[in-house]
Amino acid sequence: MDITVRLSPQDDKMLREIAEAEGVSPEDALLKSVHEAALHRGIVGNVAGTTASAPARPADLLELM
């Protein structure tokens, strides 16, 4: 699914700073945040990459923050 995300200037700046710090594109940084939010909420399903990017143990999740 393709979507268009309209961000405020402040949110756009934060996303770009996160992407730069992670060494990834803004799109990849946004996708990672969606996966992390799903993991945080315990959402499990057939979302491509969600389970593949899941930490092996809860302590690993803290390293993502």
Automatic annotation (TrEMBL):
It comes from the Bacteria. This is CopG family transcriptional regulator.
